[in-house]
Design goal:
The complex is a heterodimer. By secondary structure, chain A is an all-beta fold. Helices cover about 0% and strands about 55% of the residues of chain A. Chain B is mostly beta strands. In chain B, strands 1, 3, 4, 7, 8 and 9 form a 6-stranded mixed β-sheet that branches. Chain B is globular, with a radius of gyration of 13 Å. The chains are: A mainly beta, B mainly beta. At the A-B interface, strand 5 and strand 10 of A face strand 3, strand 7 and strand 8 of B.
Chain lengths: ~120, ~110
């Protein structure tokens, strides 16, 4: 059964950086697009970025180059490097597998809190 | 890219049917057949319940059905049950190869 597990969340000060990881299992990781989505406390879902199996990437415009998505297919791992963090980046961050224009497998989420 | 528009809340009694709308533009919902729907219970990760506008993944109840007309997609829940109380989000691909979610709808079972 396909499974995704995020790690790397935590508390970081404004202006700081954090790197999230997402490990995949139960499927051929390199065959799939992978996505990052976030959800601020009490708010809706916001799609952030995806990366193809060959590492082509697309981002939501509002990230303005602060976030970088990457993957290591040899380690079945997806990453999100987040720089110049602000309080507005406080959210639960989910990784998800892409399939036929949808997100069919989701991780449990990693909480990122940006606060001084 | 603005979020797709959904009603903030929809309520129904057990056994009834409810419909949630999801309105976008020709650059997202209206332009592609990649509209999906997600169910999210409190404190849980979202779960895919509809993909490619009308298709149900294995394991999704046939009480969930969906359609699209023009720039508006719709999700219908028939035979409403207590377990259907959750937040629901639509999602679409866009003309600039990104994805966009709807604003979300809280479904209450009265």
């Amino acid at each position: 059964q396909a499974q995704l597990v995020e790690s790397g969340g935590g508390l970081v000060g404004p202006g700081g950086s954090l790197r999230l990881s997402c490990g995949g299992s139960g499927f051929i990781f390199s065959d799939y697009f992978m996505h990052w989505i976030r959800q601020a406390p009490g708010k809706g879902l916001e799609w952030l970025a995806y990366i193809s199996g060959s590492s082509g990437d697309i981002y939501i415009e509002s990230l303005k180059g602060r976030f970088t998505i990457s993957r290591d297919n040899n380690k079945n791992s997806l990453f999100l490097q987040m720089n110049r963090l602000t309080v507005d980046d406080t959210a639960v961050y989910y990784c998800a597998r892409g399939r036929r224009g949808s997100l069919d497998v989701w991780g449990q989420g990693a909480m990122v809190t940006v606060s001084s | 890219q603005s979020a797709l528009t959904q009603p903030a809340s929809v309520a129904g009694s057990p056994g009834q049917s409810i419909t949630i709308s999801c309105t976008g533009t020709g650059n997202d919902v209206g332009g592609f057949e990649f509209v999906s729907w997600y169910q999210q219970h409190p404190g849980k990760a979202p779960k895919l319940i509809i993909y490619e506008v009308t298709n149900r993944p294995s394991g999704t109840s046939n009480r969930f059905s969906a359609s699209k007309s023009g720039n508006t997609a719709s999700l219908t829940i028939s035979g409403l049950q207590a377990e259907d109380e959750a937040d629901y989000y639509c999602c679409s691909t866009t003309s600039i190869s990104t994805y966009v979610f709807g604003t979300g709808t809280k479904v209450t079972v009265l």
